[in-house]
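Sequence in, structure out.
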Amino acid sequence: MRIKHLPWIIALTVVVLSSGYTVMYPTGAPAGKTGSPGDGTNCTECHGGTATTTAGQITSNIPASGYVPGTTYQITATNPLTGTGKMGFEVSPQNTAGAQKGTLVAGSGSQLVGGGTKYITHTNANTTTNTWTFGWIAPAAGSGAVTFYGAFARNKPGPVTLSTLTVQEAV
C-alpha cells in the first residue's frame, strides 16, 4: 500500500466510526435486548439514549378470553418511531422471572436469534418496513399469564421505545 493513500483511509475510518448512521446489527438485534425484567437490558446499549415506553406496539389475534395451550397465534410488532433511518425490533414471550413461555415462529422479515425460540428480531433493518408479523405457539396448560416484551429502535444513535402485551391463559 502506498503511503499517499493512508490519509484517505484514516479519514474514511473516522467518518464511518463517528457517523450516526453506523449500524452495528443491520441483520437483527442480538438476543436479550427486549427490556424485560429477565433480560435486564434493551436496545439503548447500542442505539443510545433513554428508552421510553409506548403502549400498543405489540398486538395479536389472541382472543380476550385468553390463549388456548398448543394453539398458534399471530403476533404483530410495529415500530412507531418517526424520522429518518433504519427500523428494527426484538420481541420475547416471557413470565415475570424471564422464563420463555410458548414458542416463537419466524415470519416474513423476521428471524429467531439466540439459538432457540425465545427471541425474534428483524432480518434486515430498513427505512420502509416498520411492521413484522410472526407466529407464537401457546405454552402448555397451567402456564398462566404471558407477557410479550418488545424493544423498538430507529437509527443509531436514535430513539428506543419499549412495549408489552400481556395475555392470559383461557380457563
